[in-house]
Amino acid sequence: STSFPSLPPPDVLLFEYISPALGVVMACATFTAPLASLKEAIRTRSLGDLNPLPWAVMTGNCAGWIAYSYLVQDYFVLFANAPGFMLSIWLNMSAVKLQFCETSRYDALGEDDAGAHDADAGIDMQLYTEDGPDADDVGQSIRRRRTADKSRAPLEISSVPSTSHLTTPHERALLLVAAAWVVILSYVAFAPAVKRNVGLDATVVGLAVNANLMFFYGAPLSAIAKVARERDSSAIHGRTMAMNTVNGVFWSVYGIARKDAYIYVPNLMGVGFGIVQIVLKWVFPARPTTSIKSSTETLS
Q1: pLDDT at residue number 180
Q2: Cα separation of 170 and 130, whole Å?
Q3: Which sign does the torsion angle of CA 226, 231, 234, 240 carry?
Q4: Pick from 142, 150, 46: which is nearest to 99 by CA?
Q5: Which of 130, 134, 235, 299 counts the highest number of beta carbons within 10 A?
Q6: Residue in 148, 129, 128, 146 with CA at minimum distance from that of residue 137
Q7: Quick one: pLDDT at residue 54?
Q8: 289 pLDDT above the threshold of 90
């Protein structure tokens, strides 16, 4: 008779298979959190108050965890971070393009005129996003704007930016993160001391990726301080906070079951920050904000 492999004990099944599988799903959901904000930035052709630096850190974080998964042969860690690594590439490319547009526009127009062009860009993009890609409407809008003010430079970037803007701030940040991981992984691959000590490669990468995670914790720490100071939890994004906290719970359980401190220590810290933010959101409810009219309503 054919024998089938027996299932692992219930506790092993729960802690070492189900928990990390749910962690993979939550990690992927967490990585998609910036998409709505980036979509709005692309619509207005400006990053505005959106801070893209965490996306550069996200690339290094995912790259480090992918390397760690190879060294310890953990496919759950791989599946949780490979989609985030690929998504971070697109997020960073979008941030670089938006920063390039901003710096080029400010070079050509100066700060005041660039602000006016930002409003015009929002109107033109609404023709695409709300009414469909009507080329005639877009062309008429651009012609009316240029006729009204001949002194303005065209919205399209037709000149090469100054040499000070050959690289954007986000490009420099991303290159710095990439260079750091090239050095770390090169040391792990070629250093004689690492080759002589079994398991030292995973230790080095594990410590490095945990150090990379500290940059992520700067955001909740600053948010917690701001909420406590202003007694207003508007700075806490509820959906993102909830996903991060639940994600941290799954990976903490998995890391403890695997006795892997490099997994459970940072995730337990993340859960702690999440609980603090939940308490603050309950103690200091977000103040109601007044709605801001769209650019078309304001100008009509």
Answers
A1: 95
A2: 30
A3: positive
A4: 46
A5: 235
A6: 128
A7: 85
A8: no
